[in-house]
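pasting for ref
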Amino acid sequence: MTGPRFLISGYYGFGNLGDEALLDVIVAQLRARWPGAAIDVLTADPAETATRLQVETTPRADLGAVRRAIDRADVVLSGGGGLLQNVTSLRSLVYYAGIIRTAVRARKRTLIFAQSIGPLDVWGRAVVRACCGGIAAATVRDERSRRLLTALLPKVRIERTADPVFLFEPDPEPLDLTAEGLDGAGPLVIVSVRRWQNTEATIALLAAAVDRLALEHGAQVAFLPLGGPSDADVSSSVIRRARSAPLLLPAVTLGQAAQVIGRAQLVIGMRLHALIIAARLGVPFTAIPYDPKVTSLLDDLRYPLAPLFVPGVKATPADIVARTDEAWTRRTELAAHLATVVPETTALAQRNFDVLNDVVTQR
């Protein structure tokens, strides 16, 4: 039995566990709904992606190969992730929007899929308007993105869904990290941090929060680098600044990272997908919203705890102490809140694939 041929475009093959979790879920859901489908992924590491997921791959930097992959496809998915934004660079936006434009011109069924949209300046908005008209549909993972994309593409069907990582499952096999220092001596706090603007101030504030949890609340704090060596580097900077002795965990698989987060009593997260996995598993968290997509997640979850701090916004040591203590003491309440809202969000994550099914089956 044959099925449609899908081409997936995203930030894949760069070793970012959050983006790879997105790809894992998308591939699994496509196979569940269309067992005979062919799946091709644009990736920076074709060999690794092909081996890990048993899919076809195309090197994303080879534009000739990308065009040929588009020509072979029946359906082109742009996403998931935060692709249509020009904070990273205008060049990045032009790359992803150019793939959409090429697919539309080739008359392929093309979707903006499970994305956060923006931030976009005046040039970014112009690129999205020029390149993305004519797509079959769009699903976006927060309400802010829905409003923005609706203003830019008023004739396109746009539905607010949720990030597919809300469907991600941890590895079932127990993970032993006692050799890394996780000995169960105290309640576990997992920290997921990334490099961002004003990093020195971020490091100082995080070190203060980590010390408060370790020295006043008896927590064992461990940093989990989801974004590869860059995350490990900034994590090490916080560890060196801290007076306590937080741990740096080694690189682990996607399912193992979720398993570690699931053991925690609290997560401190900059990385969006660390927060999503925490929410998915009912683990209370305190967020550091470096990007509007993190703020949008908090809004969509109706999360009742204010961020630990916002990078670039002044916060005093007294602020950090108060907010850290509040996150710690409200853990039971926060976990109960997540238990009420996550089923709704999981259903929204499934809606991405319902909308895709509508597009695949339409005549």
